[in-house]
Description:
mainly alpha; 6 helices
Amino acid sequence: MKKIRDSIIYKIIHADDEKINAITIVVDVLMVIIFALTLILRTNFMFGLYWISIILFLIVDLVSIIHWDVDGLKSEKSESDKIIRGFRDATAVTIILSALGFLAVIFLREINENITQNLYVIIALFCLLAITQLFNRLMIHSNIKSSAKHAKEFYIKNNKEK
């Protein structure tokens, strides 16, 4: 168990909320800059950098979701499980859609090599990822609020009984 707690992935997932938010913001800004430069410059280097940044974008989004899922507020077991189950279902759908969009482009690249340099594909995938990440951020924010509200109600209820 000690080896797992010393791993980099464990440390990233259990990092402070501020660190996760900072990493997410940096990757988001970097992604927008690379997206804009790809549309403007249209060089092979920028197309390659764009596709690498897509992978980084997906990984950071997944890590931030796992971070909240692991470190989310917990109160009463049954209600907390309902909140987390709904969160996991919704974010699983967005992660699967994002990954399938990316994998579809990679698959279609085998048929047509120039598809990764098609501006419509680049814009469509960027929009898909932006929408899914926005949805994930809204889910995280909503679940933090509902967990905090439920934890407060649970705390008040337990203190009145004493």
